[in-house]
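quick one before i forget lol
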Amino acid sequence: MNRRTLTQWLTLAALLLPVAGPAWAVDEAPDALIDRLTKEALDTISNDKAVQAGDVGRIMTLMDERVMPYLNFQRMTASAVGPGWRQATPEQRSRLESEFKTLLVRTYAGAMSQAKNLSFQVKPMRSAPEDKEVIVRTVITGRGDPVQLDYRLEKTPGVGAGWKIFNLNVLGVWLVDTYRSQFAQEINAKGVDGLIAKLVELNKANAAAKPAKG
């Protein structure tokens, strides 16, 4: 599996959850959460022609409406940005989150079509009731060799907060790690504003290459 294919799988895993339904009770176990969301996601993808076609507008809408309750996207972005995150102002952080999300969706929207005709299994999870962070391991089958997708979740405080995903792993590679080195290069060369400008440039290029539908 080459780097691009691997990254597409990682991003597909990230985009697989947005199309699930509304949040359940706060005490839902993390493995039960991933099991439910993945089932609902695969069912929705199989019936949503716009998502199957890689419609960026549709995927962005679904992501805004349905993925954010289950992701700590600020933590994901901060991890991808690395030490530069501490230098960023609140406005810069907001821009980084927005552009990073757009980068993920626009770059790999076409990967959503790969979610058709897939099946999955959640592996038994080893954890203690007091654990604040866990890894839920799943195996996706249906397109060649089985692919292991791991979800790292944190238990967030507050009523109704529940478990939130903050990283994804395919075959030993974490999603945020695929971006950290290149983000660091931009920050070292041109600062946080330079990274934001680079993300804007990449997003414009991706939009021009494959215009959003609808």
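fyi Residues 103 and 202 are 7 Å apart (CA to CA).
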